[in-house]
Amino acid sequence: MELVDKIGVIYWSYKESTEIMAEKISNGIDEAGAKAILVNVVDFDLNTIDSYYKIALGCPAMAGEALEKSEFEPFFQAITKHLKGKKVALFGSHGWGDGEWMEDWESQVKGLGAILFDKGLTILGEPDKEGRHRCVEFGKAFAEF
Ligand SMILES: Cc1cc2nc3c(=O)[nH]c(=O)nc-3n(C[C@H](O)[C@H](O)[C@H](O)COP(=O)(O)O)c2cc1C
């Protein structure tokens, strides 16, 4: 597989909303002709991070408009030095409010020198049919970015 085709979709999900988003984004990436590698963060091998040409990262808003602290945040901190110059997309589900955690996360990723794709994709609660469609389109556009 060419490095240029391989896009990691790495996510954490408490229930399943962000997981559904990750699956649909992966479908969109594949539909665009690239190859999505969908991995739950708990199964992610940190040694493989540089084998991805682009990465989509997913995490819901957790306590205090933050990334999930015990599994996702340590993973994210471990990959920060690998994000410089990399194309990165962010996504996640949230329960209320206007997605403050995503805005903070976007700023953080830009500050690390990553090339952020669009605005992070946020969905309130579980993605419905329209939300799932938005995820597929987001994946397609990220593959073409
Ligand atoms: C412990 C906990 C803390 C949460 N904190 C926030 C929060 O600060 N802001 C918010 O919008 N939603 C918050 N939520 C709601 C989740 O983001 C929402 O339920 C989301 O759909 C979960 O996604 P998931 O199904 O991928 O786990 C919280 C949920 C839990 C369980």
UniProtKB/TrEMBL annotation:
Matching InterPro entries: Flavodoxin/NO_synth, Flavoprotein-like_sf
Pfam families: Flavodoxin_1
UniProt superkingdom: Bacteria
Sequence ranges assigned to domain Flavodoxin-like in this UniProt record: 7-143
Name of the protein: Flavodoxin
Species for this entry: Acetobacterium malicum
